[in-house]
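Table S7 (text form). Paired inputs.
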Amino acid sequence: MKVTYLGQAGLLFEKEGLTVMIDPYFSDSVVKVNPKNYRRVAVDERFLNVKPDVMIFTHNHLDHYDPETAPRFINQDSNITVLAPSSVWDQVRKLGGNNNYVIFNRHTTWTECGIKFTAVRAEHSDPAAIGVLIDDGEKVYYVTGDTLYNEEIFGDIPANVDVLFLPVNGVGCNMNKTDAARFAKRIRAAKVVPFHVGMFD
């Protein structure tokens, strides 16, 4: 599977014609809530032309579910599967269109074109926040979403994770680098990718 980093906590997964986008943030909407958090990395306009088959939101914060970014991909003309925990699902389905809005809370599994998506626990300020396991039959990818180190998370995670994506910024109820390293050692993935850093001061 090809994986592309979209900035902040955004990821793009592509395999055999299926395109999956997670938590795209392609605006500067956070600055309207917190003037210190202006966007320090320009939007890569190429990503705005992507037509995802599956869109996943991990929780209802502006840099994950962005109401300015979401309608660029989810609208009256799109026909995609949207996987979202209850906090986001209530908002995103208002975009309407011929889209399949699936409520994707912890322990929910959804399979699309042979790829299995499973929502797992995250410990964050949005109590509905989730992480996501993506199993394409060859590798298992674990995107934690925003989370703190919490022992209860590990009971949701299989022993065969190949690639782990986790936050390291240490603010906003996210792991800092020390706890992220401890978390990675517990997961024992073959590859670890730190993210959720560099977008804001």
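Next pair, protein 2 of 2.
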Amino acid sequence: MVHVGIGYDVHALVEGESLIIGGVTIPHKKGLKGHSDADVLMHAICDAVLGAIGERDIGQFFPDTDPRWKGVASKVFLEEAQRQVGFHKGTLVNVDATIIAQEPKLNPHVTQMVQNIAEALHLSPDRVGVKATTNERIGFLGREEGIAAMAVASVDINRDRKSVV
């Protein structure tokens, strides 16, 4: 049976931080503030994968109060989400995500983001969708105060039990 999960993440844009999205370091005057590398795209995908298997969010696995995760590459979080899919006797089918950022332009980096995400999740790149859009200069995203991402993931769970009605 295929299960679906959704994920959302947002981080503030601040000076003095690196901008890492989808595992790609993107040249920009500001970067994302967070406990780990603040990769908003990988965080949203991680939550979507965890949601599809009925787990709680990324913070339950990697709390920002734990110094072990300070500055860690978010690829580690995606790899753990994939491991959890296996633990739940599932197979990750696909992920699809959208990044919402006024600046910088992200489309030149999407191919590498897809490659990085596919590698971390052990998926073929054709099963990973990444899109980038703006917020049409509306709200905090439009004012370039932050970057957000939303994602959906589907997981085929192979449980040997009858469904409960």
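The mean pLDDT is 94.
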